Amino acid sequence: MSLMAHLPALQVVVPLMAAPLTVLLRRRDLAFGVALVASWTALVIAVLLWLQVNATGTVSYAIGSWPPPWGIEYRVDQLNAFVLVLVAGLAAVVLPYSRASIETEVPAEQHYLFYTMFVLCLTGLLGMAITGDAFNIFVFLEISSLSAYVLIALGSDRRALLASYQYLVMGTIGATFFVVGVGLLYLVTGTLNLADLGKRLALVDNPRPVLAALAFLTVGLSLKLALFPLHQWLPNAYTYAPTSVAAFLAGTATKVAVYVMIRLYFTVFSEAQAFAILPTEQMLLILGLAGAFAASTIAVFQTDLKRLFAYSSVAQIGYIILGISFHSVNGLTASIVHLAMHGMAKAAVFMLLGGVVLVMGGTTLSRVQGLGYRMPFTSLGIVICGLSLVGVPGTGGFISKWHLILAALERGQWWLAFLIVVSSLIAAAYVWRFIEAAYFREPRKDIAEASVPWSMALPALLLVGASVVTGLYSSVVLESARAAAVMLLGPR
Fold first, then answer.
1. Could you report how far apart the first and last alpha carbons of the chain are, in Å?
2. What is the residue extent of each domain of the chain?
3. Is the pTM of this model over 0.70?
4. How many CB atoms are closer than 10 A to CB 339?
5. pLDDT digits (tens, 9 = 90+) for 308-349
């Protein structure tokens, strides 16, 4: 068989094999080189799989030549091919940035361990996206979570340990709920293959164990994706983790958890009788709106930019969940597009804030006053990404929010479209707080001249540019997202 036939397995194997190699090499330069090659290779594989799916349809890869549903299957379709490109792409951009970023945040003797945990986290996230087996999702979820706990704990602030512990406790509860849900599904159907689960659940007469499984899985995933009000771990994790870790996790970890929720809802439970019994759509709509309003309002009153944009992430997840609740092609398209747009914008924001920490000594509003004059490109990049979070035309965020509004209007819910616009205006308020501090206050005179290394500035500005380009030329992203939505829901 050709190498192309094994791309699904290589998508996980390449970063997985890089992890022990970085430990064996120990030297930070060699470890960085191995991790960089692994992440870039993962991106190439993800793009090739995306092209293959677009050309020939769904790709099925049987592990160990055991055919599904008896054996473990890696299955790539329009939805997870999109997610694979997003995760691998952000890893390939954040990793070069991290080399200079961690110099002042992580002790030199721990740098090789940082790269080990980074590629392990990447392995887990890619595995969650590509596997077609429910228990495999749990295994990869644990790989990504355990490595994320360590990455957060590497932060220079002692509060990073508390943030990591808080994430560990809530993450463990979420993983436990998830595996209990998977166990109930296996007891009812006798299979763990996602596609096979969907077929067998449609034939189950007793909905009670299926209802319990759905409830356990929903709560477990809600903890992992930081759905309001189960988001308490996220603000501290993003605030006190090393900047490159916050950028990577903000762009990928919660997005992959959302992908798993979409996959379970629309592949596994879509035909189950139990799914129609629970008011799942109404519940998600309420929680999505609550997250968008509450988290955005809390963000307005934050004095630290890292914490401000961390609460912004909770609000943006609310919009993604809101799109899922519509159970329509437009709504699901908006959710999938927002996965990518928010992932790029938020990763770029945290990467730019890493440069701010390096020059200004912190990210509180008092420290960044006059930043627009001292670091004009960095400030402009943060403003552009902030506008994308608001949903201003010309940015990627506008595309996803526009389709979210269209989804509300096609349901005849004008009031819901109005609430989406109002919540976006609250986002404009917290972005304005940065603009006021950066451009309408006198520059600090106690800061010596300093510049951000090109290895940090270039990757961040690349993501800023991507947020603008995808906003102006959105056809590729939109077509991929709509194809995934139609695949899950059928043409409507």
1. 39
2. 289-492
3. yes
4. 27
5. 999 998 999 999 999 888 888 888 898 999 888 888 889 999
